Amino acid sequence: MTGDAVDATAVLSRTGDAGGERHDPWVPWTVTDASPDEVIHPRDLQAAIDRAVVTGVRRHIRLTRGEGEGPVIVPRAAPPLTITAPDGARLSAAIDAQMPGAEYRRRFAGRFDGSPPPVRAVVDAICARDIITTHNSGVVRIEADDTTLRGLTVENTYACDRAAAAPEGAVPDARGRFAQGQHQAVALHVAGADRVHLEGLVLLSFQDTLYLQHPRPFSTARTYLTGCEIAGDVDFIFGQATAVFDRCRITSRGERGASTWVAAPATNIATPFGFVFDRCTFDDDGHIAAGGALLGRQWFEGVRTSPYRGDLDCRMADVSGQGTISCATLESVGKCRVQNSVLGAHLAGDPWGPWTGPDSARHRPVQRNRAEMAGLLGAWLAREGVTLPESAGPWLGVADCIRD
């Protein structure tokens, strides 16, 4: 196993623009919760968040046991919120990326009729879309900085059964689930928020369970997860943000027969850290053969035409389209380190995979550092007049891990 271990304090100490991050020490494991300001059933969580948005006052909301329905939205305008729950508090909904906006409106919009404008604006924007996309498929959406969640189970119960999201001719299994297609269904979406603390959560879905999104292109924000259980199959921990996973259990699901990658980071080349897994356990659900899953692949976000395909004409442009690639897409190199962890037998000996295969127009091979990227793209970079930003250290690494 290769790669140097890194310290969580260092990983979480910087935030902001890629390559120009500001020093902002953050040590969430030292914070203790104040007494709850209110105790409510999970079904009333959105109403409690709405009240906090209106008052603008920091709140500690304690949930009782029970089940509530998503989506739940913590808008950017919310004050710092701490939401804690005992075992048995659960939020769920079936929401997928290919859902039409009209369906989202019919199923969910009425629930937000009494919400304040910052919440309604999020809901209205989703409802206005033809297709809601991955970015809007979360059961819980956190936009506000300094949000803490403890002890809650969040499940996206979408069953990968939307025929329109499957390839033509695909046959579902006995439970109606498709193994191929665009079945993104986010459980928890940290939507550009910084200093988000997640403790003791259970996050469940198939594809795209946990989305850790940056605030804007060429930037990062931070999430700290400790003692969480996260399960899924395709790219089920993904995004552009910086995150530390401390003593989490990461479970790859093979039950629907999909190809399985744990992580799909899209970290900017100049951002020091992407995902860091420390003292974690990687296991599976018993449906994956030995060596049948990968730790991750680097999300080539937004790519339509790849400069790594020498037979394709790809030019730098403001947007990524057919025959063009933007700076944001080119620089979404993806960084992931796994250290001091237990790796199950389901993970391949070479744990990293390409974004897509060499025959795909979106192909990008595994890139472990800036030198490898420059070596692969040297002639193309020179032709396009592109100089890669500096980027220290390995982008991918596995250090001091054991095989189970």
From TrEMBL:
The active site is at residue 235. It holds the Pfam family Pectinesterase. Keywords: Aspartyl esterase, Hydrolase. It catalyses: [(1->4)-alpha-D-galacturonosyl methyl ester](n) + n H2O = [(1->4)-alpha-D-galacturonosyl](n) + n methanol + n H(+). Residues 182-302 form the Pectinesterase catalytic domain. It is an enzyme of class 3 (hydrolase). GO terms for biological process: cell wall modification; pectin catabolic process. Pathway: Glycan metabolism; pectin degradation; 2-dehydro-3-deoxy-D-gluconate from pectin: step 1/5. One of its GO terms (cellular component) is cell outer membrane. Its EC number is 3.1.1.11. GO terms for molecular function: pectinesterase activity. Belongs to the pectinesterase family. This is Pectinesterase. It comes from Palleronia abyssalis.
